[in-house]
Amino acid sequence: xxRVAIVTGGASGIGLAIAERLVKDGLTVAVxxxxxxxxxxxxxxxxxxxxxxxxxAVAEVATRLGAPTVLVNNAGIEGFKPFLDIxxxxxxxxxxxxxxxxxxCCQAVIPHMVEAGWGRIVNISSSSxxxxxxxxxxxxSSKAGVIGLTKSLALEFGPAGITVNTIPPGFIDTPMLRAxxxxxxxxxxxxxxxxxxxxxxxxxxEDIAAAASFLIRDEASYVTGQVIGVNGGRNTG
Length: 237
Ligand code: NAI
Fold this sequence. Notes:
The protein is an alpha/beta fold and 237 residues long. It has helices at 13-24, 51-64, 88-116, 128-131, 137-157, 175-182, 190-195, 205-216, and strands at 4-8, 28-33, 42-45, 68-73, 119-124, 162-167.
């Protein structure tokens, strides 16, 4: 049986690598993104913060491709601002996409997993939520919410055969990271950060995809509610 996976934010960076990896692993992959994705069996124009769009796209996946039993919540945006300058609109937007988007996708997909008696959810959070990050309070708070959501869902849906884990990436070379560097938001930049990374390189989207691929396998069925750091040793907490 070919499993059907939904990967959000799969048009770029980490999400694209995850979608490519899951295709290679033999899954049927549907990508939800604001932008058209070049990978997978189907690409859906979805804003994950919009409940009507999410519900309609999940229903269409179920009809066209089959019931989705794998969900990777990866779509996200960053935010850099001194705390006192963060507007309520900026705060709400970060929460809406990074946290509420994850909530909406989980709520739409989990009923299909419950019916199948099997499911895998991988939420992409951020290593910044493990240690905190100055000038990123809204972003970090949204990602800390994703970690709490992950742990709670794991407890509630473990008996239904569904595992829920989160990967907090640290310092992965993607368009998001390069855009932050170009705006001067990474301090001394990517090369300087590499020098203080124990494995002495930036992470690659494929590093996150490999961890997601493992968590989605049958043999990972005893791993749930976990925070699986993939960060080159930058964060060991
Ligand atoms: P990226 O900017 O390359 O890709 C993000 C994708 O999400 C884009 O295709 C974008 O169109 C999509 N997206 C944004 N808002 C959306 C929405 N409302 N609805 C649907 N799709 C939407 O970013 P990257 O670096 O690949 O990040 C992926 C995830 O990993 C994000 O959640 C990010 O916060 C997280 N992350 C990345 C780190 C890094 O070092 N690059 C570190 C920690 C976390």
